[in-house]
């Protein structure tokens, strides 16, 4: 039951423009309308240090936007909600973001292999996961979608990322993501802590109008920028044992890590592990090329994530938002995942970035 939101939007545009608007109760999968919120990037010559610590001079002067994000899972008391702050700064060639938000848990136990009592190895999985919906043994993530060239209909004006969300469709636990028409493209900055955050990067992806197809496009509109190398890869079970381990030989639940840096991977030595030991099921390395444009430092402490990001204002890539005209505004939205594969909390209102002179 794939569906474009465009006809619906077009037919109701005049109503939307005339009055504040709430989606009819009968249309549960139609996005809801929210009032856009202005955020401002401050100009700085003091480049923030990307270390996950918000003590930089730029963050002392950049305006603070306080947000609430809702409708996810996990987070405090299992309510699927979080609150935080957003700040932006820019230099002559780069943009910087500081995002802080509450998360009671630093979640890194992403589907490890566990040694069983009989000596075999088994991947730890969420028993309630019916496909792409792990909410128990995952990682913390944060994702931004930029509405490239204001191409996504209704994004900036009232729907934010909701313009791309197709809840209730078959194939996905939490809905498919794609835009209404060819040419409507969003730039996704997807910070996956275990897979990209720990090595200082955000996964640079994008979303277009591709609808869900079980065979041809199981990810619907979600796609990744081109890469020239690097990235993350699953560790396979070979002859019933993980193919690699980290060279320190430590179990992840005994002082090791739930990821293996590519340069640290060595052949697996089963004799180092006892029943109950967990080892990483993912190898990680920095993306190079278009997919590796976003430098990141993410740090969790005392129930809060602090994430600093930077990217060139202009990359020239067709799958990146390019801040080439600082007199223009740029619409975006942000989502937060607490130990969840897809069920994210989100800021409801469209965020509209302008660059202070
Ligand atoms: Ca810093
Ligand atoms: Ca968490
Ligand atoms: Ca890119």
From TrEMBL:
Protein's name according to its UniProt entry: Ethylbenzene dehydrogenase-related protein
Recorded superkingdom: Bacteria
Region (Disordered): 211-232
Lineage: Bacteria, Pseudomonadati, Pseudomonadota, Betaproteobacteria, Rhodocyclales
Natural source organism: Uliginosibacterium flavum
This protein's UniProt keywords: Electron transport, Heme, Iron, Metal-binding, Signal, Transport
InterPro entries found in the cross-reference section: Cyt-c552/DMSO_Rdtase_haem-bd
Keyword Transport: yes
Pfam families from the UniProt entry: EB_dh
Record's signal peptide: 1-27
Keyword hit for Repressor: no
Domain Cytochrome c-552/DMSO reductase-like haem-binding: 56-349
UniProt biased composition (Basic and acidic residues): 211-226
SUPFAM superfamilies for this protein: CBD9-like
């Amino acid at each position: 039951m794939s569906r474009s939101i465009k006809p619906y939007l077009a037919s109701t545009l005049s109503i939307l423009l005339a009055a504040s608007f709430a989606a009819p109760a009968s249309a549960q999968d139609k996005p809801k309308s929210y009032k856009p919120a202005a955020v401002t990037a401050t100009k700085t010559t003091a480049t923030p240090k990307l270390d996950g610590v918000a003590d930089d001079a730029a963050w002392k002067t950049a305006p603070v936007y306080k947000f609430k994000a809702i409708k996810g899972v996990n987070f405090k008391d299992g309510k699927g909600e979080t609150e935080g702050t957003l700040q932006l700064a820019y230099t002559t060639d780069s943009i910087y973001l500081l995002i802080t938000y509450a998360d009671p848990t630093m979640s890194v136990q992403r589907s490890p292999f566990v040694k069983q009592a009989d000596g075999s190895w088994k991947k730890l999985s969420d028993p309630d996961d019916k496909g792409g919906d792990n909410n128990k043994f995952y990682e913390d993530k944060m994702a931004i979608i930029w509405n490239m060239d204001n191409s996504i209909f209704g994004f900036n004006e009232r729907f934010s990322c909701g313009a791309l969300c197709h809840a209730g469709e078959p194939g996905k636990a939490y809905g498919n993501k794609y835009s209404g028409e060819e040419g409507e493209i969003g730039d996704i900055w997807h910070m996956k802590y275990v897979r990209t955050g720990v090595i200082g990067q955000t996964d640079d992806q994008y979303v277009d109008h591709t609808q869900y197809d079980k065979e041809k496009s199981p990810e619907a509109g979600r796609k990744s920028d081109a890469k020239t190398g690097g990235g993350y890869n699953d560790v396979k079970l070979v002859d019933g044992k993980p193919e690699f381990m980290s060279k320190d030989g430590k179990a992840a639940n005994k002082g090791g890590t739930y990821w293996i840096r590519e340069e640290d991977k060595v052949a697996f030595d089963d004799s180092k592990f006892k029943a109950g030991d967990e080892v990483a099921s993912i190898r990680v390395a920095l993306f190079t090329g278009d997919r590796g444009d976003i430098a990141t430092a993410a740090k969790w402490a005392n129930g809060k994530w602090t994430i600093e990001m930077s990217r060139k204002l202009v990359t020239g890539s067709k799958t990146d938002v390019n801040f080439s005209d600082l007199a223009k505004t740029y619409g975006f939205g942000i989502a937060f995942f607490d130990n969840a594969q897809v069920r994210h909390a989100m800021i409801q209102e469209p965020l509209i970035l302008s660059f202070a002179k």
